[in-house]
Design a protein that fits this description.
Elements lengths: L1 H19 L3 E3 L4 E5 L4 E3 L2 E4 L6 E8 L2 E7 L2 E2 L7 E4 L3 E4 L8 E8 L7 E11 L6 E3 L3 E3 L4 E6 L8 E6 L2 E2 L15 E4 L4 E4 L8 E9 L2 E4 L3 E6 L3 H27 L26 H13 L1
Main location: other
Keywords: Cell junction, Cell membrane, Disulfide bond, Immunoglobulin domain, Membrane, Signal, Tight junction, Transmembrane, Transmembrane helix
Organism: Tachysurus vachellii (Darkbarbel catfish)
Amino acid sequence: MATGRQTFVTALFYSLCCVTFAVILRTTNKDVWANEFESIEMTCLIESISTNNPRIEWKKIKNGVPSYVYFQKKISGDLENRALLREPANLLILNASRSDSAMYRCEVAAIEDQKPFDEILISLAVRVKPAMPRCSVPNSVTAGSSTELRCMESEGYPLSQYQWFRNNEELPEDPKTSVRFYNSSYVMNAETGTLKFRLVRKEDTGEYHCQARNDAGSAKCAAQLMEVYDFDIGMMLLKILAGVIAFILLTAGLCVAHKHGYCSCREHTENDYKVPQYDRKDCVTADEGHFRHKSSFVI
């Protein structure tokens, strides 16, 4: 009986020792978000420790490579002069930038404790407000044709979502969900920022602008006018007829000019060779020479 009681007391003693003489850390948030240019604090709370002056270190882990943030009681690295350590071991970043997004590890070592070391890993993501998006809107479109409006920006983090507006009225992502836009044939992609019209209608005429937004804020481009014109078959035929008449007149003019010798189709080149013409007085054949010789000989 005494042996059992003694074993229980011993186990209780060791249990209390392990709890008392051990470094135990905790944090209020392991996934921290911060807006760019704002302050953010990552908590590293020491719940249990016996050593009076524990060694505290913070490390930044980016792309799998660790680097010191707080070492030998001072801030170092790219957070120097814009971060500080707050009691007991919290890390306060005064002016967060997008380059601060990384994993951070708080490490506490206490040589006098039975469990002399503990660490906590915290993820920090810095949100960046979108820049003004670049928008592409066609100036004029023929009714019944297809067209595409584009919107894009590359600064925001997390990635921006896009929304289109016509005459300052928000377009529903699915036109079939709205009575006002039910007959529209557009397809909107909130992730890529495209607004595609399969068949443009006259009612689609208006000023269009796009807004990019994420958790850090939003930005929009200037409105641009898109006009939709009816397809005029009569005007198209007139243009074709005018082209045919112009072609006939040009051909007739060339023929008249050629007839009156205003244009020559033959060009003399250095390779042209003209057989020289000789005077028959200077040209005596062998037979004629022989005859004359015979006549003078008879005389």
